[in-house]
Amino acid sequence: MSAPAQPVLHLTGQVICGPEEVHPEAWVVDGHLTFERPPASLEVERLEGYVLPGLVDAHCHVGLEAEGGVTPERAEEHAVTDREAGALLLRDAGSPVDTSWIHDREDLPRLVRAGRHIARPKRYIRNFAHEIEPDQLVEYVRAEARAGDGWVKLVGDWIDREVGDLRPLWPVEVLTEAIAAAHEEGARVTAHCFAEQSLLDFAAAGTDCIEHATGLTEETVRIFAEQDIAIVPTLVNIENFPAFAEAGQAKFPAYAAHMRDLYARRFETVGLAREAGVRIYAGTDAGGQLPHGLIAREVEAMLQVGMTPTEAIGAATWEAREWLGHEGLTEGASADVVVYTDDPRRDVRALAAPAHVVLRGVRHGG
Ligand SMILES: [Zn+2]
Questions:
Q1: 231: which strand partners?
Q2: 97 C-alpha vs ligand 1 centroid, how far in Å?
Q3: Rounded CA gap, 55 and 292, in Å?
Q4: What does each of the 366 residues of the chain score in pLDDT, given as a tens digit?
Q5: Which Gene3D superfamilies does this one have (predicted)?
Q6: What separation in Å is there between the alpha carbon of 191 and the centre of ligand 1?
Q7: What spacing in Å lies between the alpha carbon of 67 and ligand 1's midpoint?
Q8: Are strands 157-160 and 165-168 parallel, antiparallel or unpaired?
Q9: How far apart are CA 201 and CA 353, in angstroms?
Q10: pTM of the model
Q11: How many A from CA of 172 to the centre of ligand 1?
């Protein structure tokens, strides 16, 4: 057996593999996690603390900022910021630039891309989306399904300035056809939805997930639970709703009132979904309005909807990894782990201060 290129890492303290499974120690050998003690002759570096699988930001945008797509250098900064925050698996919920090169960078987080947002003309933030008409939707969904990493992102509703309120973008018939096309291509579909009606439409059309989902009602919560439609609420970004309302107040008072109402009941709404058993994952929406690296804050916000600390941690680790088809802390898995000095299960705010970040077996920072 040849000596590994990297020293063996000995993880001690509590290796938290899941809500019910904690090990006193584990090792990182050649980039992989093992629970079997390696030969004593190998050089060992010890990392002590509370060990979690690399966190998941299930909704962020790499290579996207408020004005639209940015340079690869900026996209790299986004990814590095997430890594430093312990977010080692990112689900990119739409980016106008091709960031597939990140897959080849061992030092950057793992990335699951949804391709570019798909919206209608003037019905989303400028420069973000493919802006198309409904008769082009199926074709665009197919193309993004092929370009991405197993997800397609639609804009489900947005302000319609002629109506002065949030309105769905797509007729249900074409949506149904488009989602079926994505599924044929092996991709799952998610959509940006703030208001009530788009949730009914997307559920009827067979969506897999909804982002934000602030318009959930008792009826749609029941449907989402029945159909196993996941949600990624992005609570830290919903904090911007009062500012959106304020900006629209003069010209679009109905829209402003609607946004304030969705905002006022945000915790109650997501709490209803939780009680009904809807899957909920942690995402920050970094990249549009917010900076990267806020996953700890999103987990903390999830307590406001009634989640226990262990549930909220699961929404950003075990559960989210499984949902995205990535390993957690299992024998032979890639060593993508974060070590904390304090126990995040006692106080999730500990997640904001990783002591050590290990990605593909390599220590970064700490
Ligand atoms: Zn987003």
A1: 210, 280
A2: 14
A3: 13
A4: 455 567 899 999 999 999 999 999 999 999 999 999 998 888 899 999 999 999 999 999 999 999 999 999 999 999 999 999 999 999 999 999 999 999 999 999 999 999 999 999 999 999 999 999 999 999 999 999 999 999 999 999 999 999 999 999 999 999 999 999 999 999 999 999 999 999 999 999 999 999 999 999 999 999 999 999 999 999 999 999 999 999 999 999 999 999 999 999 999 999 999 999 999 999 999 998 899 999 999 999 999 999 999 999 999 999 999 999 999 999 999 999 999 999 999 999 999 999 999 999 999 975
A5: Metal-dependent hydrolases, Urease, subunit C, domain 1
A6: 9
A7: 14
A8: antiparallel
A9: 41
A10: 0.97
A11: 22
* Alpha carbon of 80 to ligand 1 centroid (Å): 19
User: What is the distance in A from the centroid of ligand 1 to the CA of 170?
Assistant: 18
* Residue 285 Cα to ligand 1 middle (Å): 4
Q: How far is the CA of 2 from the centre of ligand 1 (A)?
A: 46
- What are the structural domains, with CATH classification, of the chain? 8-53+327-364 (2.30.40.10), 55-316 (3.20.20.140)
Residue 112, both tokens? 């699951």
How far does the centroid of ligand 1 lie from the alpha carbon of residue 300, in Å? 19
136 C-alpha to ligand 1 centroid (Å): 22
Centroid of ligand 1 to alpha carbon of 296 (angstroms): 17
Whether residue 281 contacts residue 56, with contact meaning beta carbons closer than 8 Å, is answered with yes
With the C-alpha atoms ordered 84, 87, 89, 95, is the resulting torsion angle positive or negative?
A: negative
Ligand 1 centroid from CA 117, angstroms: 9
